[in-house]
Amino acid sequence: MLPFVTQLGLAAVLGFKFGKDPGYAAFLQTVAFVAFNKVSTSQVSKKGVGR
Amino acid sequence: MPLTRCIALAALLRAILLIYGVFQDRTPLKYTDIDYFVFTDAARYVADGDSPFRRETYRYTPLLAWILTPNIWLFHSWGKILFAGFDLAAGWLVAKLLEKRGMDSGRATWRYASLILLNPFIATISTRGSAEAVVNFLVIATFYLLLERRTELAAVFFGIAVHFKIYPILYALPILVVLDEDYVGVGKGPEVAGSASVEATKSTEPEPSPKVKQRQRSKKVTTDTSAAEDSDAIELAAKRNSKAPGSNDKEMIMATDASRSLDGSRNWNFLRLVNKQRVMFGIVSAGIFFALNGLMYWM
């Protein structure tokens, strides 16, 4: 649950802070959203990291 | 016209990729995206008068199946050409948007719009048959229409964009922030002659505060009716260029921060945040979104 809060919360805060220039704000929001994207496919947990 | 030439080159690139795709589709490793076959099957159901959701893995909007029905009775690659067309339109809009914000036409085209138009990554996305180009175009169109101050149309496009993919809802925040009292270029009303801010515009002294200067600038430019009159970025850039040497960047940040009022104090009066444009934008875009989603359930 916490990763989603971080992801959405950061995107929301960036949108509010930089909203006067909506293009720039949209760019920052997209980058933050994608950077904090939590990957949760079952294959990751099955195969393990670094094998 | 540099933009037309760039779009022609981009169209040529996509045409080459489309023709190449026809040949690679005959090998085991197909060029076409698997989603494209899903769309086409769903469009076949729609062409038969049925629901596109009869196709098992179709999890997209029924609008997509509708616009792809020419895949069935025209030719199989109609969807790819359509998505490539949306790609070109998005690139064109980006160039126009930058030009409206004051960037010179050649630079806007060859340095920035070319990142979309001549970019092989983006060209392959749409020529493979992925529908991302449509959402892309709709979001860029929303921002462009906001710059043109056609707010109702921007709200319609935004509603359709969120209906296609849910993630553009994030952009609702900056859009709602920008729809404030500075949006239409009119501040609190005409300044009274003899007041401090009007005196400052006549003289060459350092300006009173960034926010008031922004209002004065938009009022001055309104009488000139130039194309750049409502652009936030131009005002910001002009402020940056003409700032008196003693002022700092903190004022600049405070001018862009929506949670502060004129003199920099924190604004806790949240009722001020609700104004006619925001309510209208919210109602129109949400209405379109829910209406289109209701369509999904009816199908």
Keywords:
heterodimer; A: 51 residues; 71% helix; B: 299 residues; mainly alpha; 15 helices
Give the SSE string of chain A: HHH
Q: How many DSSP H or I helices of chain A? A: 3
Helix content of chain B: 55-70%
Using the alpha-carbon principal axes, give the shape of chain A. Answer: elongated
Question: How would you describe the overall organization of this protein?
Answer:
With about 50 residues, chain A is mostly helical. Helix content of chain A is about 70%, strand content about 0%. In chain A, helix 1 (about 1-15) packs antiparallel against helix 2 (about 20-35). Chain A is elongated, with a radius of gyration of 15 Å. The model of chain A has no long low-confidence stretch (mean pLDDT about 80). With about 300 residues, chain B is mainly α. Chain B has 15 helices and no strands. Chain B has helices spanning about 1-25, 35-45, 60-65, 70-75, 80-100, 105-115, 120-125, 130-145, 150-165, 170-180, 195-200, 210-225, 230-240, 250-255, 275-299. Chain B is flat and about 65 Å long. The chains are: A mainly alpha (about 50), B mainly alpha (about 300).
Quick take:
The complex is a heterodimer of chains A (51) and B (299). Chain A is mainly α and 51 residues long.
Task: Outline the secondary-structure elements.
The complex is a heterodimer of chains A (51) and B (299).
Chain A: H1 2-17, H2 22-35, H3 42-47
Helix pairs in contact in A: 1-2
Chain B: H1 2-24, H2 34-47, H3 62-67, H4 70-73, H5 78-100, H6 105-117, H7 120-127, H8 132-147, H9 151-164, H10 172-178, H11 196-202, H12 210-224, H13 232-242, H14 249-256, H15 276-298
Helix pairs in contact in B: 1-5, 1-6, 1-7, 5-6, 5-7, 5-8, 8-9, 9-15
